[in-house]
Structure formats: C-alpha cells, structure tokens
C-alpha cells in the first residue's frame, strides 16, 4: 500500500488537514519531521502550508536548508511525486526544485478567499484526473503568493507545459495568472491554492479532492 | 581576526514592496510630499572569525548569496566590513 510522507517544519499548520483529506480518499499518510532524513518508505511527499520556521528571512528560506530537504531533492530528481501547497510551494522555489519565486501580493493585503482556477494541463501529478479547461474553485490563504520569474523562464514554463493552473481573476498579481506550476517532468508541483481545504462536500466544496485524487493516482509507480 | 560585516538586502526594482508603499503613504500623510518612493529592505550584522579581510568578505558574500537573499527577488550588498574587538 503506497503511503504519503507529509513534511512538518516548525510552524507548519496544514499537515492534519492534508492527512484527513488523503484519508477520505483512502490514502495512507504519515507526518515526517523536518529533521528526519529518510523518506524511503513513502511513494510521495507533500509539503503542506503554514509558516515554516516562522517565515523568518523569507517564506521557505530557512526550511530549504532543513535536513529533510536533501532527501526531498533526491526524491524529486528520481521522479517521486512531490507536492508543495502554499508555504510548500515557497519552500520548493527556495530549494530550486521549481523556478521563480513568490513575492508579496500586489496591493497591501493578505488574501484569504475562494478563488476560481482553470486547469491548464493534465501533465502533472495534481491534474491527471481533470481536463484542460476545467474550472475548479479552491481557497487561497497567503501574503506572498504573487508568482514571478524572468521572461525567459516564463517562456520555458509555457513551452514545456509546466503551468498547471491559472487564476481566472488574478487575486495577487501573479505573472501570467499563474496559480500552480510543475517541474519539467511534471512530478514536482507547487500550488498556492489549498486543495485540502476544499475536500468535503458537506463543508461546501470538494473540488480539492480531484487534485488530491490525481496526486494519489500518481503514487502508483510509472503512472506519470 | 574578528570581523563585523553589515549586509543590506533590498528588493529589486519592480518587485512588489507593499511595506514600502504603506510607509510611503504614511510619510506623505505626515506632510512630506517631496518623498516619492520608500523601499523597504533588511539589514544583517554578522560577527565572524576570518584569516583576513578578503576571506571574511568572501564568506559573508557566500552567506548573503545562499541564504540572506533570493536572487529572483532581491539584491544584496556587503558593506562596512571592519575588524572587530567585540
């Protein structure tokens, strides 16, 4: 049975929500402390949202040097599905697993609201169960979610089909309305919206389950 | 030798700086209408041991590049590298 490692830094605060949402899909997971250095028993890794190391310096800047990160980098390079949600996305860019950076939102506000998204590609660990052009709504909850990169990188993201989701009404100033991107192989994804917070029809929105079900499907070796 | 270095990290031009904008609003509302821009940034003071000033500068630059700044968003400058008695 494949199992997901959910990485916990000091200040991470969405790990239980992610575990609960995965459990609803029948996917086993375990919390993994950032000071650990063994991910060999997991077939996928999620870095959940929160404020790793207090977001001191910059979001993700200190987490990037946590002991577990060298293991995450080698997982990512060997094709293991790695998903960073919100703060996890920031960690993945700081670690160089995804290009670009998340700067402060344009405008002066922390934003916490549901956001309409358009699925751009299914060639990623988070969208294989969706179709290009599908619209889903997921909550965002961030101050530094304004994705940016130089124009050369943006062209590469477009040419390599690495833009995973775009905002319909760009809430934070992200370049090209980007809400989620992947690495070239599609096995590493960073997304600012929180799929785990939209994983129960009883609570009004289960769109996030499609994202997490895609992630679960990617855990089967060779699925991507 | 002991050295003290000050590293200044500022956002690149064009990077969103809501803190700078908020401070500018306050500056202007205090009546300083001549001010047109405020850029916020960070300043770090490091105390370190090094063979000489050059190797101290090298280490500090390396730390600034690897950790203190993100090259996508920020520029850094090592300034005021001085030998320290503290």
UniProtKB/TrEMBL annotation, chain A:
Tagged with keyword Nucleotide-binding: yes
Record's catalysed reaction(s): N(2)-formyl-N(1)-(5-phospho-beta-D-ribosyl)glycinamide + L-glutamine + ATP + H2O = 2-formamido-N(1)-(5-O-phospho-beta-D-ribosyl)acetamidine + L-glutamate + ADP + phosphate + H(+); L-glutamine + H2O = L-glutamate + NH4(+)
SUPFAM superfamilies: Class I glutamine amidotransferase-like
Organism field: Acidithrix ferrooxidans
Record-annotated membrane-spanning stretches: none
Record PANTHER family: PHOSPHORIBOSYLFORMYLGLYCINAMIDINE SYNTHASE SUBUNIT PURQ
E.C. numbers: 6.3.5.3, 3.5.1.2
Cellular-component GO terms for this entry: cytoplasm
Described function: Part of the phosphoribosylformylglycinamidine synthase complex involved in the purines biosynthetic pathway. Catalyzes the ATP-dependent conversion of formylglycinamide ribonucleotide (FGAR) and glutamine to yield formylglycinamidine ribonucleotide (FGAM) and glutamate. The FGAM synthase complex is composed of three subunits. PurQ produces an ammonia molecule by converting glutamine to glutamate. PurL transfers the ammonia molecule to FGAR to form FGAM in an ATP-dependent manner.
A GO molecular-function annotation: glutaminase activity
InterPro entries in UniProt: Class_I_gatase-like (IPR029062), PRibForGlyAmidine_synth_PurQ (IPR010075)
Transmembrane keyword on record: no
Pathway annotation from the record: Purine metabolism; IMP biosynthesis via de novo pathway; 5-amino-1-(5-phospho-D-ribosyl)imidazole from N(2)-formyl-N(1)-(5-phospho-D-ribosyl)glycinamide: step 1/2
The protein's name in its UniProt record: Phosphoribosylformylglycinamidine synthase subunit PurQ
Domain of life, per lineage: Bacteria
A biological process from GO: 'de novo' IMP biosynthetic process
Main location: cytoplasm
Keyword terms, alphabetized: ATP-binding, Cytoplasm, Glutamine amidotransferase, Hydrolase, Ligase, Nucleotide-binding, Purine biosynthesis
Encoding gene per record: purQ
Location relative to the cell: Cytoplasm
Annotated active site: 86 (nucleophile), 194, 196
Oligomeric and partner information: Part of the FGAM synthase complex composed of 1 PurL, 1 PurQ and 2 PurS subunits.
Pfam families, A to Z: GATase_5
Gene3D superfamilies associated with the record: 3.40.50.880
From TrEMBL, chain B:
Pathway it works in: Purine metabolism; IMP biosynthesis via de novo pathway; 5-amino-1-(5-phospho-D-ribosyl)imidazole from N(2)-formyl-N(1)-(5-phospho-D-ribosyl)glycinamide: step 1/2
Ligase found in the keyword field: yes
Annotated protein name in UniProt: Phosphoribosylformylglycinamidine synthase subunit PurS
Catalytic activity, reaction form: N(2)-formyl-N(1)-(5-phospho-beta-D-ribosyl)glycinamide + L-glutamine + ATP + H2O = 2-formamido-N(1)-(5-O-phospho-beta-D-ribosyl)acetamidine + L-glutamate + ADP + phosphate + H(+)
Source organism (scientific name): Acidithrix ferrooxidans
UniProt feature coiled coil, ranges: none
Name of the coding gene: purS
Main location, first listed in the record: cytoplasm
NAD listed as a keyword: no
E.C. code: 6.3.5.3
Task performed by this protein: Part of the phosphoribosylformylglycinamidine synthase complex involved in the purines biosynthetic pathway. Catalyzes the ATP-dependent conversion of formylglycinamide ribonucleotide (FGAR) and glutamine to yield formylglycinamidine ribonucleotide (FGAM) and glutamate. The FGAM synthase complex is composed of three subunits. PurQ produces an ammonia molecule by converting glutamine to glutamate. PurL transfers the ammonia molecule to FGAR to form FGAM in an ATP-dependent manner.
Keyword line: ATP-binding, Cytoplasm, Ligase, Nucleotide-binding, Purine biosynthesis
Pfam families xrefs: PurS (PF02700)
Subcellular locations according to the entry: Cytoplasm
Cellular component aspect of the GO annotation: cytoplasm
Assembly and binders: Part of the FGAM synthase complex composed of 1 PurL, 1 PurQ and 2 PurS subunits.
GO BP: 'de novo' IMP biosynthetic process
InterPro entries for this protein: PurS, PurS-like_sf
């Amino acid at each position: 049975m494949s199992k997901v490692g959910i990485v916990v830094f000091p200040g991470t605060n969405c790990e239980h929500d992610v575990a609960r949402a995965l459990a609803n899909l029948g996917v086993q997971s375990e919390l993994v402390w950032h000071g650990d250095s063994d991910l060999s028993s997991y077939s996928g890794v999620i870095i959940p949202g929160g404020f790793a190391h207090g977001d001191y310096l910059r979001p993700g800047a200190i987490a990037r040097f946590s002991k577990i990160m060298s293991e995450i980098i080698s997982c990512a390079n060997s094709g293991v599905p790695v998903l960073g949600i919100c703060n996890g996305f920031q960690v993945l860019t700081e670690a160089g697993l995804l290009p670009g950076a998340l700067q402060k939102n344009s405008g002066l506000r922390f934003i916490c609201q549901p956001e309409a998204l358009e699925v751009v590609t299914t060639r990623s660990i988070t969208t294989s169960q969706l179709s290009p052009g599908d619209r889903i709504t997921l909550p965002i909850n961030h101050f530094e979610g304004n994705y940016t990169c130089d124009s050369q990188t943006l062209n590469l993201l477009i040419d390599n089909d690495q833009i995973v989701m775009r905002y319909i009404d760009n809430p934070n100033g992200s370049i090209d309305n980007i809400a989620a991107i992947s690495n070239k192989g599609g096995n590493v994804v960073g997304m600012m919206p929180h799929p785990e917070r939209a994983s129960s029809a009883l609570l009004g929105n289960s769109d996030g389950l499609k994202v997490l079900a895609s992630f679960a499907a990617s855990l089967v070796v060779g699925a991507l | 030798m002991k050295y003290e270095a000050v590293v200044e990290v500022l956002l690149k031009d064009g990077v969103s700086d809501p803190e700078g904008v908020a401070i500018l609003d306050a500056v202007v509302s205090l009546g300083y209408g001549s001010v047109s821009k405020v850029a916020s940034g960070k300043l770090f003071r490091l105390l370190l041991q090094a063979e000489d000033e050059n190797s101290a500068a090298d280490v500090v630059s390396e730390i600034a590049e690897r950790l203190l700044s993100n090259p996508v968003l920020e520029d850094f400058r090592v300034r005021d590298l001085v030998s320290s008695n503290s």
